Structure formats: C-alpha cells, structure tokens
Amino acid sequence: MEVMKPYNSLNAYYRKLFGEKTFKVPIDAGFDCPNRDGTVAHGGCTFCTVSGSGDAIVAPEAPIREQFYKEIDFMHRKWPEVKKYLVYFQNFTNTHDKVEVIRERYEQAINEPGVVGINIGTRPDCLPDETIDYLAELSERMHVTVELGLQTTYEATSQLINRAHSYELYVETVQRLRKFPKIEIVSHLINGLPGETHEMMIENVRRCVTDNDIQGIKLHLLHLMTNTRMQRDYHEGRLQLLSQDEYVSIVCDQLEIIPKHIVIHRITGDAPRDMLIGPMWSLNKWEVLNAIEQEMNRRGSVQGCKAKEQRFIC
C-alpha cells in the first residue's frame, strides 16, 4: 500500500481508477512536431533532444505493436504482477497528422489485451475538430488522457524556447477538449526555463490550474541535454540551472496552490545520464522526491492548502 503523500499522486489515482497498479507504456508512433518540420517553425523546442523527449523508450524503431510488448516485458522484470496498461504515445506531437493516420497508428496498440486506456502527448495547435472527435470516440471505449505540452504561460519565454504557439491557444484548446467530459487533460509545465523567476513559475501554475478545467498536471525540471539548442544558451551564460533547494521550494509552493482534486502526474523527471549536462543532482530522483515531501511536512502543508477558487476562462 502506498504511503499517504502530501499531494494527489498519479499512482494512487490509477489504483483507485483501475483497482490495481497500472503501467504507462511509452510508444514512439513516428510523428513529428509542427515547430520542427516547418508547419509553424523549424528546429523544435530549444530544450528538446532529437528523440523528442522519448529518450527512455526501449525500442523506438520497432513497429508499434512490437514496441508495446518490448516495453511491458521490460517493466515486468520489476513488477511481474501488473496486468493493466495505458498506451502512452509520448514523444514528439502525437496528433500531428491526418486523423486517418492517427487512428491507424493508435489502433495498432490500444486493442492489445490488458489495455485500459491511452495517454496522448501533444500540443494545443495540433488538435483540429476531427481529431478531437476521434478522441471523444475513443473515450467511450477506454480511459483517454490528452497530455498538453504548455511549458510556460509567458509569451516571451515561449518565443525564446521556440514553442510557436500562444497561451491563448492553449486555453481555447482546453475548452474544446472539455466539451467531451470523458477526455481528461494533463498539462505540462517546466520549471527553470530561461529568464523565469521563482514568482513566474508559481504564476505559470496558478494560471494553468485556476483558469483552465484540467484534471492533471506534470511539473518538470528543466534538464539541459546535449545536442540541444538550449545548450548554447547555457554556455553563453543566458541560462542558470536550478539548485535542488531552489527546485524543492518552487515545487512545494506550486503544490500548495494546486486544487486538491487535480492529479499530480509528475513533480520531477528522468534524464539519461550520458545525455544530461545538468542539473546533475536530478539523477538522484528519489532523493528529490523525498526532499519535496520532507519540505511539505516541515511546512505542515498539503496540496491545495493555498488554492484559489477556479474561474475557468470562457
């Protein structure tokens, strides 16, 4: 049984929803990003690696169905008892194509035994009505979560990291998705982006959870990776990496203002050691998680203890 945490953890949510531990199975479905291929920009996000944030996928070059079984075989080495799975189309933008292509790729994995849902990593500018209609159709068959990459609510930062979409578009996309209540939305934010202060990072979360009807949030630490455009910013002195103490303080402040019903899908992340420039302390993931819980306990805080009333933008 999971020890009670001072926040609404993803593991606890999935155990309640599905009745047991459930794997998220990461898949590379072969999509691209609109800010990489020239649709809206070139080069991609400045923090992103050539794998599109899918560096941990076991066999990204394999056919989709084969990837699924390779991933669960790998996971079963540690958790052999798990029998339920969420297919996680993780890297790049997994709705960046015609709906016929999207449907064909998704269906290669989601009909396998034990699959109870699908998580889709995407961007707010790649969800036309026909794609949302397909996701709504899927939500009648299984649990559907759309993981919307936002990263920041500040336009200057967004331009600096080459996101090539606005916060206003994100808000509009959340509204369009929530016309179908069975589709859950998880928003991604990055702490430590160039030029953003502690206060700005708190404001990113406040806007995200107060103005928008989302069901989950991922808080990422900015990992500076090799062979990224952001690497140059760092070496030229335009980027200061967060210390562990700074990060813990930021995340605890953020957790306090996130309404307690919103599921915390992540409060730190993983990066391959051989690709990580920094912060190197982030490699000690459990130490970071423990430090966050210890600080929340020291404060006597829990998620949502300082949350404001949600007022969704209409």
From TrEMBL:
Its cofactor is [4Fe-4S] cluster. Residues 17-260 form the Radical SAM core domain. Pfam families: Radical_SAM, Radical_SAM_C. It comes from the Bacteria. GO terms for molecular function: 4 iron, 4 sulfur cluster binding; catalytic activity; metal ion binding. NCBIfam families: TIGR01212 family radical SAM protein. This is Radical SAM protein, TIGR01212 family. It comes from Streptococcus anginosus F0211.
